[in-house]
Design a protein that fits this description.
heterodimer; A: disordered N terminus; B: about 400 residues; alpha/beta; seven-stranded mixed β-sheet; three-stranded parallel β-sheet; 15 helices; about 15% strand; disordered N terminus
Chain lengths: ~475, ~400
């Protein structure tokens, strides 16, 4: 470090220093000489060494407070970002996937139920060939009197989907974080999935044995999904979104407090620098300049990092999560439409489903409008095409029910209806996956934007404190 | 498209292309390939339309039209011989930093392995508007829901092909069951398919087990039954597509067979003799359904051009041209309608073929191998391969 620049000796360096210029320490050292008479205590406290000591204390206190508050703020923010990336975002996506699985399970179970009701004709494995009980749930065993009469593919799809839903419920539960309401809802989903599966099995057995009450069991199962599981999914989604909002704002206030304290620290540093200039006529103290730069860097980082994080999160929410919400809205409406079609067939009575068609049209318009990448747009267009196919079959089913042709309605439901529904459902899932990827990537980037902040907010103020300490001690040393 | 597109205007646009909402299978959209104009495909032999000399690049053929319409030229390699040696070439030459091909076409279970190991690129759906034409039956596989990493090429059935005259002499009745292949009256004149999952799957069906939900015990029992049949001389040969000449020569009377080859043979013999030399049946217990599927190996150089290739063959009219030639089940929605729409009586006959377009009762008897743990599959593969060596 170079020595302070000394201009023309307007104020010659005191040699020997007068007691006025020396603080209490210097005064004590010169005690044998004795304090000069006529110097007031006030004058003594205004001496340069005293000024330096006071500055030292004030600056170090400010820097320490700044370091602590900014570190705490950035740690809180980083922890919130990590929670969003690792917990909230995956949970929000997971709950939509869970609902997709339940929707698929329900459609497949209903298709299998209706196939067994109408055709009764050998679509499973032949009972007389001695199928093993664990080989195919629809295969013939003594305990399964209706074996061979239901659509095996639909039944397999149901089993896969319900199993997947149970696993997804556990995954969401493991990631959602410590929200008791969400966990209660997820616990309820687990219970309802069991209730639902029980009803489906009861409906299946009664149906295969042509017992009364099968329709009622299926109807109850449908209701469990649309009312109970649907409500719990809505609760978890709501809690997840609230959590996301919390995490977005977490640490913001404390960060601004740290920024304010950083500003005060910078002012104090400038004030000390100015004081030194006034007292010693030295233009700059390089170590104090370094300390100022370090504190300014931290303040800048505290402003830029969280702002970038907020912007990226906003973008991720708008581009990713809003699309997820729109897509899952389509899924919910389509699923409700499918359930109502099932009930129409069971009741043999038409219902007015036109509102559903309009709603899905509008939701798909929103999805297409919100698509902001080629891939998202392609996924949305696929959803639109597959919806058009499903809608056409759904309207045919309605027409068949209205015309009293139940057999045609059932054939359409379990054939083209189930096929086009699966096509639509998987295209929605694909769109969800793309949105999820976009959302999770955004959340990950937001997390990275504040990833190094805690380290910087600790390391740089410590360096600044050392620089201050060194700078002032050096100056004080000149008076010893 | 830079401006937002509403669903209605989107469907109107489809309608303008001569489509309606319910048959919107031909999808037009300008796509940007980013200068990618070459694609290298590694496929099975005789799996795309070719001329009499076997040239798939013949004028007017699918590959020539692809080049003319999209500007994408295809380097087409027919070296994928089977899922053992052929797949080994995929492992050696397409899995790694510089894949030799942009599209490889393994069978579904091999594709599942590629995807699970991270050896597949995501399908670039942004350049494949016809992705919406994938038959939904292929979208619900647990290992790749929605076909995000593979797109089916052709599907087939492994059932039973037989010479009706010879079988009538030997059995006195047509073949309707897998169990008839184990009948001592056919000793030494039965062909078993060389693919473990298909042979074991059919034997499982014969025992009343479900190969779409296989258990180790059921698969072992089925394999034991095949081994014991081979040991007592019941099996005349383990075959792939070579079942056809062996049936034609009378060496075999019946064989586990692939539907496409059987279907083509049947049509050829109908043209020649006015009666089929062979019959192909989906046995009462069921048959094995499989599909070969397009996978873009991770790190492939021409992903966008690969997307253009996939999009082209998923146009129903183009897919129909392939179906007409290969005789396998098309995974493309709208092919049956496209064949009917040509007005050609041969195409109409194809459109009504229940092996090419299985009806609901036939579909209900088709089972796709469900898969076991990798270690069990490897063990069964090894045991079956040893049997093939002996056979």
């Amino acid at each position: 470090m170079s020595a302070p620049i000394r201009p023309a000796p307007a104020t010659p360096r005191p040699s020997p220093p007068s007691p006025t210029d020396l603080g209490p320490v210097a005064t004590a050292r010169l005690g044998s000489v004795g304090p000069p008479t006529g110097l007031s205590a006030y004058d003594q406290t205004r001496s340069t060494p005293n000024f330096l000591r006071r500055s030292n204390v004030v600056l170090l206190t400010l820097v320490a407070a700044f370091a602590v508050i900014s570190a705490v703020a950035s740690l809180i923010m980083q922890s919130a970002s990590t929670a969003t990336a690792d917990n909230t975002a995956p949970a929000l996506v997971g709950i939509q996937n869970l609902f997709a699985s339940v929707a698929e399970a329900n459609t497949a179970a209903t298709a299998a139920f209706l196939s067994a009701r109408v055709d009764g004709g050998g679509t499973g494995l032949a009972p007389e060939t001695g199928a093993s009980p664990d080989s195919d749930p629809g295969a013939g065993t003594d305990s399964d009197p209706g074996a061979g009469t239901e659509d095996r593919v639909s039944r397999n799809l149901y089993e896969d989907a319900i199993q997947r839903a149970a696993v997804q419920a556990e995954e969401v539960s493991a990631t959602i974080g410590p929200d008791t309401t969400a966990h209660r809802a997820l616990g309820q989903i687990a219970v309802d999935l069991n209730r639902y599966a029980g009803r489906i099995e009861a409906a299946r057995v009664q149906n295969l044995n042509d017992l009364p009450g099968a329709d009622l069991e299926l109807r109850t199962a449908l209701q469990i999904v649309s009312d109970d599981i649907g409500a719990s999914v809505a609760t978890v989604t709501e809690r997840g979104r609230a959590q996301l909002e919390d995490e977005r704002s977490t640490g913001r206030l404390l960060t601004w407090a740290a920024v304010a304290l950083g500003a005060v620290t910078l002012v104090a540093l400038l004030w000390v620098q100015a004081g030194l200039l006034r007292r010693t006529n030295r233009i700059l103290n390089p170590l104090l300049v370094v300390a100022t730069a370090l504190i300014a860097t931290v303040v800048g980082y505290l402003v830029v990092g969280p702002t970038a994080r907020a912007q990226i999160l906003d973008q991720a929410s708008e581009g990713g999560y809003e699309a997820i919400a729109t897509t899952s809205g389509i899924q919910t409406t389509v699923f409700d439409l499918q359930s109502r079609l099932s009930l129409e067939i069971l009741d043999g009575q038409g219902d007015d489903l036109s509102a559903h068609y309009v709603t899905v049209d509008d939701q798909i318009d929103a999805l297409l409008a919100g698509a902001d990448s080629d891939r998202e747009r392609a996924a949305a267009e696929t959803v639109a095409i597959r919806w058009a196919r499903f809608e056409a079959v759904a309207r045919q089913i309605e027409a068949a029910v209205d015309g009293g042709d139940r057999e045609v309605a059932v054939a359409l439901f379990q054939g083209e209806g189930a096929s086009t529904f699966n096509g639509l459902n998987t295209s929605i899932e694909s769109a969800l996956s793309d949105n999820r990827d976009q959302f999770l990537t955004g959340v990950g980037q937001a997390s990275m934007a504040v990833g190094t902040t805690p380290y910087l907010t600790i390391a740089l103020p410590v360096l600044a404190a050392l620089a201050i300490l060194w700078a002032i001690q050096r100056r004080l040393g000149e008076y010893r | 498209m830079d401006t937002p597109l509403s669903r209605r205007s989107f469907l109107v646009a489809l309608g303008a292309a001569g489509l309606t909402a319910c048959v919107d299978t031909r999808i037009e959209r300008a796509i940007d390939l980013g200068g990618s104009t070459r694609v290298r495909v590694f496929n099975w032999p005789e799996y795309i339309d070719a001329d009499d000399a076997g040239d798939p690049h013949h004028p007017g053929g699918t590959l020539a039209r692809l080049a003319a319409e999209t500007g994408v030229s295809v380097e087409y390699d027919i070296g994928y011989s089977d899922n053992i040696d052929g797949f080994q070439r995929v492992l050696d030459e397409a899995v790694g930093h510089d894949p030799r091909w942009d599209i490889v076409v393994p069978t579904n279970w091999r594709a599942a392995q590629m995807i699970a190991n991270g050896w597949a690129e995501p399908i670039p759906i942004e350049v494949i508007p016809n992705h919406a034409n994938i038959d939904p039956a292929f979208l619900t596989n647990a290992w790749d829901r929605g076909c995000r990493f593979q797109v089916p090429w052709q599907a087939g059935i492994t059932g039973i092909a037989y010479d009706p005259v010879v079988i009538d002499d030997l059995l006195g009745r047509p073949i309707t069951s897998v169990n008839q292949l184990f009948d001592p009256a056919l000793a030494g004149r039965v062909g078993f398919i060389g693919e473990m999952r298909e042979a074991v799957g059919l034997a499982m069906l014969a025992a009343g087990d479900d190969p779409s939900r296989p258990t180790v015990a059921a698969a072992d029992a089925a394999l034991d039954r095949i081994v014991s049949a081979a040991e007592r001389g019941q099996v005349g040969a383990f075959t792939f597509e070579d079942f056809a000449p062996r049936l034609a020569s009378g060496e075999l009377a019946a064989a586990m067979a692939w539907s496409g080859d059987a279907s083509l043979l049947r049509r050829e013999s109908l043209l020649r003799n006015d009666r089929p030399d062979i019959e192909f049946v989906v046995p009462d217990e069921g048959a094995i359904q499989w599909f070969d599927t397009m996978v873009i190996p991770a790190g492939a150089a021409n992903v966008a051009a690969a997307g253009a290739f996939i999009d082209f063959v998923y146009d129903p009219a183009n897919a129909a041209a392939i179906t007409r030639w290969v005789g396998y089940i098309s995974p493309v929605v709208g092919v049956q309608e496209a064949l009917r729409a040509t007005g050609d009586p041969d195409d109409a006959a194809l459109a009504n073929d229940t092996i090419l377009f299985p009806d609901a009762p036939t579909r209900a008897r088709l089972f796709t191998w469900g898969g076991l743990d990798q270690a069990d599959e490897d063990r069964l593969d090894a045991e079956y391969a040893a049997l093939l060596g002996d056979g």
